[in-house]
Design goal:
about 130 residues, Glutaredoxin, Ribosomal_mL53, ribosomal protein
Length: about 130
């Protein structure tokens, strides 16, 4: 079972991006028992390959010592907010839900792949150097 969880987590991490995310705030009390999942998610999202997908994303950590329940607040570029109360969620569940929302709001989702023609690659077309007709 642990292998399947690691495999699913690594699959999500490879596809994760933060393009539509403006800010992620992690709030937790490190002395509580139920903070392992939020710490794991924070370390996962702090990977360079994920952070490079949107360098404007702010990761903010609010560490308290007042028995605050762990939560993740996600602010999207369109103004929508998403709150995870993570005390009873696993790392995989949090990443899965976050990936669903991020994919849904991805600004590049509706863009098609950029197509280049042979003439554009060669510098041809109008204004390029080609054969002159008399």
């Amino acid at each position: 079972m642990a292998f399947a969880l690691r495999k699913a987590t690594s699959y999500l991490v490879k596809r994760m991006h933060l393009r539509p995310v403006r800010k992620i705030q992690f709030t937790f009390d490190p002395y509580m028992k139920s903070v392992t999942s939020i710490r794991d998610v924070a370390s996962t999202l702090h990977r360079p390959e994920i952070l490079e997908t949107n360098q404007g994303t702010i990761l903010k950590f609010d560490v308290k010592s007042d028995r605050t329940e762990p939560r993740i607040d996600v602010d999207f570029n369109d103004g929508e907010k998403l709150v995870f109360k993570t005390s009873n969620l696993s790392q995989l569940e949090i990443l899965d839900y976050l990936f669903e929302y991020v994919e849904e709001k991805d600004p590049r989702k509706n863009e098609g792949p950029e197509l280049t023609t042979k003439s554009a690659k060669a510098g041809g077309g109008k204004g390029g150097k080609g054969k002159k007709r008399k």
